[in-house]
Amino acid sequence: DPLERVGIYAVSIFFMLSGLSLRYAYGGHLLASWRNVRSYAVKRVLRIFPLLWLTVLLTMAIWPASGSLRQVVLTITGLFGFVAWDQAIGTGVWSIGNELFFYTLLPLMLLLLARPIGRWTLGLVALACFIHATFLSLDPGHSFLGQWHAYSAPYHQLPYFVIGLLIPSLPAPPRPISPVLLRIGMLLCAILILFLPVQGDPVALVQGPVRVLFTLACALIVMCAWFDRAPLPRWIEVPLGSIGEACYPIYLLHPIVHFCVMAITGFISVRYFDIPDWSRIPVSCLATITIALVVHRRFEQYFIHMGKRITARPATSIS
After folding, report:
1. What is the pLDDT of residues 251-273, one digit of tens each?
2. Residue 319: its pLDDT value, please?
3. Alpha-carbon radius of gyration of the chain
C-alpha cells in the first residue's frame, strides 16, 4: 500500500530534514555562547510544546479513553520521548518524542561534527544503530504493530537524523548539477519507495535489504533537495512554502481533522444527502491544510515570536 509506505518513510525524511535544518541553523554558532544554547533551548520548547499540548487536549476531548493519567503526564512533559516513546497520546506523536531526544543530544552531536574524528565517530554510532535496527531488532515472523515499541525507539530513528546532520559536510560537486536531473532523481527515488514490490506484513518494509534500499532512496531525495538551489516557479514555490511552514500542525492535526471530516460527512450523508466516499479524502486534505495554516499563523507564530522576544538579550561567552 503506497499510503502505508508514505506513513513510514515520510517520517524518515522528516528526521533527515530536521537534522539538516538544525545543522544549517545552529551548526556554526550554537556552542559559541551561553546565549546561543539558551536561545536554542527556549525556541525549541516554544516550537514543540504548545502545539503538542493542543493536540493532546483535542485528542482527549474527542477520544476521552485514549490515554491514562501517566500517559498524559509523560506526553505533556515530553518525557515519553525518553522513557515511553510508544505511549504518547495522539497519532504520530511518537516521532515528536524522538525529536525531543535528538534535540537534547544536538549540542553533543554538533561538538562531534566540529572535527573529522568526531564526524567519523558519530557516523559509526549511527551505522551501528542502523545495523541493529535493520537486521537484529525486528522479527520478520511477527507483525509490525506487534513490534512497534522497538521500531519507535529513538535509536531506531537516530540514523536518519544523523544523515541529515552529515549532508552539509558532503563536498560540493565539482560542477553544478542540473536542477532538472536533481528533481528527476528525487522523483525516481520516490517512485522506488512507493512502488517497489514488497510482500507480506508491513514489517517487511522496515527491515533487511528493503530498509537499506529505502533509506538510501530517502537520503538521495534529501541530498538532491540540498544541492538543488534553483528557484521554483512562484506559483509552485508560494503554496509549497506555506505548506512547509505549516508542516508541524499538518502532521499533528491531520488525524483529528480527518476524523471530524469523516464524522460530519457521514452525518450529512445519513440525514440530508449522500456524499460520495471518493470525495471525502480530498475534503479532508483540504480541511487539514486550511486549518493547519490558520493554526500556524494564529497559534504557532505567537509562540515563535515569544521565543524571539525571550532570547533577545545580551550574550555571555561560554569561555
Report:
1. 999 999 999 999 999 999 999 99
2. 46
3. 21
Under a CB-based contact definition with an 8 Å cutoff, are residues 61 and 72 in contact? Answer: no
DSSP string, 48-70: HHHHHHHHHHHHHHH-TTS--HH
Indicate the pTM of the whole model.
0.92
The 8-class DSSP code of residue 170 comes to S
Phi, psi of 173 (to 5 degrees): -60, 145
Residues 293, 203: Cα–Cα separation, whole Å? 34
Give the three-class secondary structure for 264.
helix
Q: Which helix (H) or strand (E) holds 212?
A: helix 208-227
The vertex-159 CA angle with 206 and 38, nearest 5°, equals 135
Tell me, what DSSP letter sits at residue 314?
Answer: -
Beta bridge partners of 6: none
Cα 143 off chain centre by: 23
pLDDT of 176 above 70: yes
The backbone region for 170, taken as left when phi is positive above 0, alpha when psi lies in -120 to 50, beta otherwise, is beta
Residue pair 44/192 in contact by the 8 Å Cβ criterion: no
CA atoms in the 13 A half-sphere facing the CB of 273: 0
Which whole-number Å values give the CA distances from 1 to 8, 190, 195, in the listed order?
Answer: 11, 14, 8
Please tell me the distance from the alpha carbon of residue 128 to that of residue 92, in angstroms, as a whole number: 25
- Closest to 90 measured CA to CA, from 82, 275, 81: 81
Element (H, E) at 293: helix 277-295
The pair phi, psi for residue 152, each rounded to 5°, is -85, 5
Please tell me the distance from the alpha carbon of residue 207 to that of residue 189, in angstroms, as a whole number. Answer: 18
Q: What grid cell was written down for 102?
A: 535528538
Are 81 and 97 in contact, with CB atoms under 8 Å apart?
yes
Round to whole Å and give the CA distance between 254 and 91.
Answer: 9
